[in-house]
## 1
Amino acid sequence: MVKRILVALGGNAIKQADEKGSPEEQFRNCMITCKLLAEIVKSMEKNDGMIITHGNGPQIGNLMVQQEEARQIVPAQTMDIVGAMTQGQIGYMLQQALLNCLKDEGIETPVCVIVNQVQIDKNDPELLGKAASKPVGNFFTEEEAMAVKKEHPEYIFKKVKPVGEKAWRRTVPSPYPMANVEGAAIRKLVDAGFIVIASGGGGIPVIQDEHGRYKGVEAVVDKDLAGERLAEVCNANVFLILTDMEKVKLNFGKPNEQDVDKMTDTEAKKYLEEEHFILGSMEPKIKACIQFLESGGEKAIITSPDKTVEALEGKTGTLIYRN
Amino acid sequence: MVKRILVALGGNAIKQADEKGSPEEQFRNCMITCKLLAEIVKSMEKNDGMIITHGNGPQIGNLMVQQEEARQIVPAQTMDIVGAMTQGQIGYMLQQALLNCLKDEGIETPVCVIVNQVQIDKNDPELLGKAASKPVGNFFTEEEAMAVKKEHPEYIFKKVKPVGEKAWRRTVPSPYPMANVEGAAIRKLVDAGFIVIASGGGGIPVIQDEHGRYKGVEAVVDKDLAGERLAEVCNANVFLILTDMEKVKLNFGKPNEQDVDKMTDTEAKKYLEEEHFILGSMEPKIKACIQFLESGGEKAIITSPDKTVEALEGKTGTLIYRN
């Protein structure tokens, strides 16, 4: 039974892989997604709650390209700031689309967007040395990459494709989320009956210095791990992760590939150890689900957006539940 | 006596006119501004409230340039979306700076940012024909302007400088704000003790269609007029507008120019009619103050950021009060 649900939307909820990301395309996708979210709201009781988080990969990628292309004319902003921009952008589009879909259903629930920082450990291994594992922005030739690096010696570039000329990309750290900085405000709004969109793109990563002052970091926190932190703060009982697969798969991409209908957190941990899941893709989703259940959550569900309603009814998707 | 204050920050609170707007410059300016805001918070009682709004001219200008420069690679976003980006960007920077300044003062008041739509009338005269009065983005030569217009026939370009080659700019409508769409969420947070940053850049302008659905518009709402709407929703008793002048001036720029220490709303209206104030600059600020007082506000104050504390003590700035 859904009492309070956190929905984590994947990139395809806002921009399909084969699209460039025009305003029309993005608003159209948001409407498709928000129709489904409105269906969930419709099925809930008045005092239940919904919190929404979302990825920002394509949008931050496009903004990073724009920062770079116009560099000679206007100053490029750092990734924490660009991440904040995507929270405004995507938050606005989702908020408006959801308000409109709810209105179509005759539902008056208000929606709002919180610009949201996520605290990371300043000693997180991802921040040290060359560990940065998350590729962002343009593909470059080695020559181009080195030219940008000359201007920004702090950037890390890695060869991310084995072949092809434009095989280099900037990579940034992907540290672990410790706490949602604006958690109290979000909780207050959810308790008061607002649908809240927050922690977009995994939140804006910030560290605290020795005086307790926050400072932005050029990094990307995994949006499902950060969403799980938000689910905890809001005391959600259901954590729904929407991605591009109807069900989680074991032996992914192998001849003995196999759907998972349901599994316990203990089984999920075993599968993680056996490396069934792609790093940086399904793996953090499974980790987030386990963390959610261990912190008191009831049900974690992973499915594709078009199967949302059926998955909540237990008819499809992958259910992860406590032992 | 300040019980609940709405502070409207001008563009110079985030980017000085002689700066390009690098992340370092903008965070430095935010810290200077937020030290002053922390001073105000310090002087207030625990149950008082503060709401902050801000301009976004330089930031939306830079983002519009970036949209244009990278147009061949990634799709340019519409102005409503770009406005939402600036709310994320500036909201994040101000929020972080204010949290840090409050922490330095030992104050635990939480701060949050709401991505905020402002409703405008779909029949606003500024939206009709070629009325669009607000210049945005790059300066172009006539030839360049016409080239962009070929791609975007809906754009309006006007010659905004009497001389010089690059004298053309895109202009967009500057409609009147009717209502703050997320007002209820903001009010809830302010009542619960949060400092809320909202209505950035005058809010994201939206109209409602015949079915009540919201839709973004490429326009710029004046940030002080929109801020006044927010002050009403939050039941603020003081409206503080920070700009680049310590006091409002009569006969501005003329030999008989004269500071105003205080005036009633009736006097302010008379001066408006006598055209003492520059259109689109001091004029909407005075209008916003009159509207604030007429809707039940106690005091409107216009001054420069460095005079904030003295102005609140009645020692400088221009005070506008009810008859």
## 2
Amino acid sequence: MPTRKRKAVYAGSFDPPTEGHMYMIREGSFLFDELVVAIGVNPDKRSLFTLEERLQLLRAVTRDFQNVSVSSFEARYLIDYAAREGARYILRGIRNASDFHYEQTMRNVNADRNSNVTTVFLVPPRELAEVSSSFVKGLVGPRGWKDFLKNMVPAPVHEALLKKFAGQKGGDDAEGAPEPGDPEG
Amino acid sequence: MPTRKRKAVYAGSFDPPTEGHMYMIREGSFLFDELVVAIGVNPDKRSLFTLEERLQLLRAVTRDFQNVSVSSFEARYLIDYAAREGARYILRGIRNASDFHYEQTMRNVNADRNSNVTTVFLVPPRELAEVSSSFVKGLVGPRGWKDFLKNMVPAPVHEALLKKFAGQKGGDDAEGAPEPGDPEG
Amino acid sequence: MPTRKRKAVYAGSFDPPTEGHMYMIREGSFLFDELVVAIGVNPDKRSLFTLEERLQLLRAVTRDFQNVSVSSFEARYLIDYAAREGARYILRGIRNASDFHYEQTMRNVNADRNSNVTTVFLVPPRELAEVSSSFVKGLVGPRGWKDFLKNMVPAPVHEALLKKFAGQKGGDDAEGAPEPGDPEG
Amino acid sequence: MPTRKRKAVYAGSFDPPTEGHMYMIREGSFLFDELVVAIGVNPDKRSLFTLEERLQLLRAVTRDFQNVSVSSFEARYLIDYAAREGARYILRGIRNASDFHYEQTMRNVNADRNSNVTTVFLVPPRELAEVSSSFVKGLVGPRGWKDFLKNMVPAPVHEALLKKFAGQKGGDDAEGAPEPGDPEG
Amino acid sequence: MPTRKRKAVYAGSFDPPTEGHMYMIREGSFLFDELVVAIGVNPDKRSLFTLEERLQLLRAVTRDFQNVSVSSFEARYLIDYAAREGARYILRGIRNASDFHYEQTMRNVNADRNSNVTTVFLVPPRELAEVSSSFVKGLVGPRGWKDFLKNMVPAPVHEALLKKFAGQKGGDDAEGAPEPGDPEG
Amino acid sequence: MPTRKRKAVYAGSFDPPTEGHMYMIREGSFLFDELVVAIGVNPDKRSLFTLEERLQLLRAVTRDFQNVSVSSFEARYLIDYAAREGARYILRGIRNASDFHYEQTMRNVNADRNSNVTTVFLVPPRELAEVSSSFVKGLVGPRGWKDFLKNMVPAPVHEALLKKFAGQKGGDDAEGAPEPGDPEG
């Protein structure tokens, strides 16, 4: 039996963390000896929550997992970051066929760059397969959104969303997106 | 045999209405006792036609359907809007596999929120499967676009497009998009 | 408002009827004034249950739906059968992207043959999206199958399966298929 | 400008040839200097038409194409057959996403084996995208099939099908498959 | 850090084991403390190699992996077998989008049955994504197959294939399948 | 045998040209008597390289192909441009299923507009299937990007990228995108 520790990196934007992410973190914490949840910072991309806010939210929601740490990285490829952290694994979620195509490409390109790091995948359960950060953000606004999002994000994230949009959206005179994404547009 | 009326909402951006939408409206008018064609207003999204213009276009193209009315809504989820209108059905079109994935997600999320409203789907015929509002808008510009779009949008929309781009695009000195969307970009 | 009745045909092999079929029948019974649930007989294809058994099962599980009748047809295309029955609609379910491709093809070919009959689609909820007759049959055998299938088929079908496989499979010395379908084979 | 001839092989079962195949042959005849239409014989697979019948049908339907020849091969991989015939190209059709996945795999495996032979693809027009040999065969039987198939296969194939099923199917007392393929089975 | 052992089951038909399977076993051996490679016996399905032959082949190709054992099971669902073996994990490979759809379904159905067992996925590298047991078997026959398969299966499997088809296929007078699968049939 | 020349247009944004484009150009140069590589100018879309820069890069990388010329067009549809250039063919690449759906739509719409121009497709080999202009641009930034991109673009493009981002990205204090695209956003 191997004695070395199995360490993995689970990276993303986490803008904000969702219950879909929580599934990954929970299972990743069981599957690996150490799990680094890392925010990949993309300076060219606008985010709803600042890096600092997202780090705080991730720390809040991972508090109970002894072997999970929270971090961030920028100006590095994920595969290089993982290797540098001494992680032999990258953990990724696949929610649907479109995710799968992207993940297969990245897994191949990453293995070309560093064949010592293996990408391991989990598929979230049915309800969570539909929950992404952008899906959640797209639901903010219309009447009832506060209630609607309750099961899609962990409690600290729910509070952060309420605070961020306080007085802005979803009140009695709210104006908001009727639907996340609209493929007929 | 049930005596209650079957009412449905067919919502979208309709920016602008296309022959694809007309197929849905025509069939929806037959399938249901009442059909509400409703523009979902998304204040964060820029549109080519104003809400007022789109309402007028929809009214013009649905004039001959006795049981079809035109409306708009904002700051509400489609599922809530449908329920509030007393509609037991949401009508949606599926043109391709990518549409299908999105529609399946929305159908599930909506049923979680209100299980009394059922989503009913139609699949447009071959030629119309390729016609969406954004596809149509992407074709505006290059020489010959006026003619090219003729079979893709109803006459009032065609006129509205000509007026909107008069003197701007597609003249002898026109500059425009060579192709809608470019996956190689 | 139209006064004519809306009649639809929902056809399949129903070998045996599943909870996925029940969703379609229940919703079809609401959506249409009359729904004919029809077994399409394919003499070249072996079935687990005989035509007579399947008719009896369908009658048992549709007993409570006033506007649903059960029938069968052979030596006719579904589209021709529907037209002959005076049905303006064919009702079909789409469970996944692979279903969608097949259904889109059939919808197009059928519309070419008879443009007066429209195909209407429903997408079953998450759990039922996975339940098909062949999936259910593939699960018969291993220890615990009787219990496993309970939520996948209506009670009369469950009993019929138990009777059909009595003493044969799933007993203490059972031998059976470990898994339905095996894409690695 | 190159002076050498461009030769291609278009292989398949052609059991029987369809209008989908005719599109490929017609375009292939224009695109290449020489096109070999070749039946790949698979002794383990039962066919409706014998090899000799299929060769005769292919010869009949390609009569007007000066640079098209008809042949067959067995006990060889297509890529090896093409190379042996001095063909630098394999011609293949892609009708849908499922075809695409298979063709991409074969193209890669073939290029591994012989990088001097390039696979070139055509996508048939909308109506023909739905027509395959097995689709056509699945439609034989129900009342009206003779008429239904008329636009899907070239005339000599239509006659051959009528002769093959004379007195057997599609008469007034016909029994037949109601639908090709049934994903709900 | 958890002290309990992580045990996984990697099940399949392994008829025969391929280099695709070897990738899974190698990575699974690193990722888990214990890996059981288990042949799921399906008495209704014909196999090329007998159960005993497949067990021997698996033992031969896993000889060097200290924490890998080989086994078989029948008359049980994989999820039940895994639980009974004390495995908290099922290991599965996803080669393409079609695999993904099947695996997502099974993962969901299995989690419904036993939420204590988690399915973990790996995606094989580019070349192996195309290699399955049935693909390999489909390539047997035409001239050159012995050479062609060399990189697709481990050496003991290659020898076993040669022995099984000795004098039968691929000799100078061989007759064989020209191509694995033929979507145009 | 036909004596007329076969001329094709291969159009795109080429912002910048990649090794994926090079595969298409190389094969297109063999397959056709004349190949026009044409930049479709879209004035509404921002590009990394100016039109003039892209023309220069394309000229540099196609220098060795005698029958390949470089050009650009705007205010015209690709199909009209091809016809006007006297090209009977449009050459397109398909890298994955998502590409395929788009290409099938465009091929149909183009054939509706001008049935004399046929679209011919090539599928790039495994490694290149993942390389697009936007993928390449998304990789610019993090440490090591200069090296990482070396096999993805031809040498003149590599130099042009280095020059464009000199002092800006990828230095020791670089800040950059950790990953191209992020489906979890």
